Amino acid sequence: MFNKKWTLKHTGDVCESELSKKLKISPEISQILKNREINNEKDAEIFMNPSLEYLRDPFLMKDMDKSVDRIKKAIDNKESIWIYGDYDVDGVSSTSILCLYFDSINYPVNYYIPNRLEEGYGINEEAIRHIHNQGCNLMISVDCGITSVEEVKIANELGIDVIITDHHECQSEIPNALAVINPKQEDCNYPFDMLCGCGVAFKLIQALTPKEEFKNSLYKYLEITTLATICDIVPLVDENRIIVKNGLTLMSKGNNIGLRELIKVCGVETEKIGSSHIGFSIGPRINASGRLGYSMLGVELFTTKDTEKAKEIAMLLEEKNNERQLIEGKMYQEAEAIIEANEKYKTDKVLVIANEGWQHGVIGIVASKLTEKYYKPTILLTIEDGEATGSARSIKGFSIFDALVRCKDLLNKFGGHEQAAGLSLDKENIDKLSNEVNKFADYELTEEDLIENVKAELELKEESISLELVEELHKLEPYGLNNPNPRFIVRDAILKSIITMGKNKQHIKFTIEKEKSYECIGFNMAYLKERYMPGDKVDVLFQLDENNFMGRRSIQLLLKDIRMSYPKNSSTNEDIIELFSKTIPSENCLYDIKEVDKNSLYEKFGFDNIEEMISGNKDINIFDYITKDTLVIANTINGFYRAISDISLVDEDIIDGFDINYNVIMSNSDKLQLIFSPNIEKINIKRYNNIILYDYLYNMGDYSHLYEKANNEAIIIKYYSQTDLLYLNNIVNNLIPEREEFIYVYKFMLSNKEINVDFKDIKKVFNMIPLKVFTILKVFKELLLLDFEFVYDNLLNTKSIHIKLLPKPDKKLNLDESKILKNLKTLNEKYRESY
Predict the structure, then answer these.
(1) Pairing of strands 690-693, 715-718
(2) Of 338, 384, 291, 299, which Cα lies nearest the Cα of 95?
(3) Which of 364, 388, 451, 707 is the most buried (most CB within 10 A)?
(4) How does strand 672-676 pair with strand 630-634?
(5) Backbone φ, ψ for residue 254 (5° rounding)
(6) What does DSSP say about strands 81-84 and 110-112: parallel, antiparallel, or unpaired?
(7) Is residue 698 packed enough to be buried (19+ CB in 10 Å), middle (13-18) or exposed (0-12)?
(8) How far apart are CA 728 and CA 107, in angstroms?
(9) Which positions ≥6 away from 822 have C-beta within 8 Å?
(10) pLDDT at 668 over 50
């Protein structure tokens, strides 16, 4: 029913807590902290004010002392030191801060960054021999090297000592380097292993610098380390949060000349710079130069002391970024064409796509975009001279690195981590790789895993939506992995207006209304416009922001997803029409309607009166009762949609999916069960501990059966109000068509013989509401006047009904012979008696 799953980190109301009182923060901010497992005053204070004083001792990291001793020895002996970096933001930043460090102590060093297009990722033999010929005695790798077993062996043979600093996942064999600094090593006891490559290099500088001196000198490196930490998408917790929080403050002052000029080129106001600017504007420009074979430009930019040179390099990076965008757009279109042309990609859980002549440097970006669009792990490869090289990107819960480890016999080289990796293999092994990673994925991933789970902090009450909350949210910055920009949901809002905007009409803008109206902006979401119309009730998932136009501040919701709560026109909504079709039982599944004495019924089950027995209560936290062993019953479209909305927000670990059933005997699954328009006599009620009614039952007999058959420990929750009885009343009033309506449909079929009608056209074709049409069709099928079946076209995403006139029967039509009609009339009578 929904394209994405929404999960609330906190379900139910948000209340003032001891934490919110002590810190003088709103209950919403306090709850967001709790969602991040920050439950006490001290942890909250550290989170919101992460001081540099909390940086850990670098010598807790394996081989740090050995590395420091070797570097100091090299300096004392005036040896030739080379820094070997990587070509992405992290590698360029790592190289830059080490160059800045050695410059600060007036010791000359050289650096080498491989050309991405010609040499590929990591340390390579040709580069080793080149720097050996330049007289290198000590090589320090940054953001690479942990998988370079053979290359380090060659360096050792050439007499070059190697210190590896890296943060990528370790493989079974660690290179035999003089020292290996990587907190991900199994025998490394450093308490935080999620630093980026530049973060590890930053810790090396911390270890090389006297403690008191480092308190002042660290500001030379903090901005660049912040840039790398954000762009490498490592969790913004612990030391990463300390670095980024303080680094962004420093960046607003523009200490690093090169970074300051690049920020200007991006058109970002320095004093307002945030993690999103780094990740989406500044980082891509550094990456673009590396992707096109100009990695040195980033190091030159960050290490220059000349403002004019910095401006020149920044403009050159802008040009390279524009060039990269053109290449990326073309590659993306070609990859999409390959996917559309091959049916296998519809069923493959991992997309493995290869093509001749794709640009090495841009493949990772395109792989990320395809992963985001299809929500499937993606491996994108370019083929050149019989070898395929490329990048892999993954989704939550699937380690692409582990998948490649399973296929290592097919690969020439690979490295990376759970969510991203690089690889190379012979061209003839591409299909084998696709088969093997998909075998692994078939075992590891369920179909539910391939539905993106978008997490929201809480359901935001309208009275909490304010500019004060927007300002308070800044206390939780910077945002990133493990500390995402808080998302909220608002449900049952009326869609007042909807338009597209932007140069290419690629964005969407709409207004929703509860008690007040709110403006929503959805960037690159214009495709949603056709799915909704003014008057629909919608649920929105968003980030809370403000719009400051001409000095006027107002609330703005940044849309992340939207879904239908209840459409304005239910007669043309295919999902609702399908539900209408389930409301009418077939002759083989008629309602069992129990005779009861209404006046004594309540006493039988311990109630003071009949109102107490059947009246509902919506003033509860329904999420407390939605568990695996729960039966949920809905009798109206409105109740069904409310139930679906609530269930869909529950954490998947609690319900592990759920079953929806229509007029059928329940399965023996322990999953949560939602049954629509139930034949309550046929439900095995005893097996459920919670039973939630989202609607009134059709009659007192149903209540009697429910209370009689429920087990003694069962909790029965009537989650409805008196107003909801109107929805059930509307269904009952329309269950039984007039005789003239039966005649109209039959005459229509006499004229047409055999037709196919789209669900959304049923009202227009038959000139009556779909609920009545389905009653008539089922009665005529029972009486052998016609036959029909539902047709679902998954490719076109359409639902229709195929109706065929049967040969005219020998005897005259008598509607009174219909069991279905008799049953519905009895249901109508018992409903009137009950209410």
Answers:
(1) parallel
(2) 299
(3) 388
(4) parallel
(5) 70, 50
(6) parallel
(7) buried
(8) 82
(9) 816
(10) no
**What is the bridge-based pairing of β-strands 672-676 and 552-566?**
unpaired
Nearest to 697 by CA among 678, 714, 711, 710: 678
For residue range 53-73, what is the model confidence (pLDDT) as tens digits? Answer: 999 999 999 999 999 999 999
Q: Exposed, middle or buried, 587 (CB in 10 Å: 0-12/13-18/19+)?
A: middle
List helix spans (H) across 77-180: 89-104, 125-133, 149-157
In this structure, are residues 107 and 50 in contact, taking their beta carbons and an 8 Å threshold? no
Strand-pair partners of 792 = 799
Average pLDDT over residues 418-447: 92
Other CB atoms within a 10 A radius of the CB of residue 309 amount to 15
pLDDT of residue 596: 82
Q: What is the CB neighbour count within 10 angstroms for residue 803? A: 23
Question: What DSSP letter does each residue of 604-665 carry, written as one string?
Answer: HTT-SSHHHHH-----S-GGGT--TTEEEEE-SHHHHHHHHHHHHTS-HHHHSSEEEEESS-
Which residue's entry shows tokens 């029409």?
577
Is residue 400 within 8 Å of 351, Cβ to Cβ? no
Give per-residue pLDDT as tens, 62-103: 999 999 999 999 999 999 999 999 888 999 999 999 999 999
Amino acid at 654: I
Measured distance CA(166)–CA(144) in Å, rounded: 5
pLDDT value of residue 318: 86
Tell me the Cα Rg of the chain.
33
Q: How many helices (H) and strands (E) does the chain have?
A: 32, 26
pLDDT attached to residue 409:
93
Own/partner contacts of 643-648, CB < 8 Å, gap of 24 or more, are 643/674, 643/692, 643/694, 644/1, 644/674, 645/491, 645/539, 645/565, 646/622, 647/672, 647/674, 648/2, 648/5, 648/6
Q: What six digits make up the tokens of 677?
A: 């328009």
Choose among 631, 726, 733: nearest CA to 683: 631
Query: Do you know the residue count of the chain?
Result: 835
Please count the other Cβ atoms lying within 10 Å of the Cβ belonging to residue 768: 18
Per-residue pLDDT of 327-383, as tens digits, reads 888 999 999 999 999 989 989 999 999 999 898 778 888 998 899 889 999 999 999
List b or e across 536-569, with b for residues whose CB sees 16 or more CB atoms inside 10 angstroms.
bbbbbbbbbeeeeeeeeeebbbebbbbbbbbbee
Q: How many other CB atoms sit within 10 Å of the CB of residue 625?
A: 18
Flag whether pLDDT at 665 surpasses 50.
no
Q: What is the mean pLDDT of the chain?
A: 89
Q: At what angle do helices 725-734 and 770-782 cross, to 10 degrees?
A: 50
| Positions of E strands within 44-193 | 81-84, 110-112, 138-142, 161-165, 179-181
For 618, phi then psi, to 5°, come to: -95, -5
- Report CA torsion sign: 344, 345, 347, 352: positive
Taking CA atoms, 522 is separated from 275, 276, 281, 505, 527, in Å, by 20, 16, 19, 11, 10
**C-alpha to C-alpha distances, 111 to 76, 94, 525, 719, nearest whole angstrom:** 20, 11, 44, 68
Whole-angstrom Cα distance, residue 135 to residue 140?
14
Burial (CB < 10 A; 0-12, 13-18, 19+), residue 795, is: exposed
pLDDT recorded at residue 84: 96
**Closest to 512 measured CA to CA, from 500, 499, 528, 496:** 496
Task: Please give the structure tokens belonging to residue 798.
Answer: 């359409």
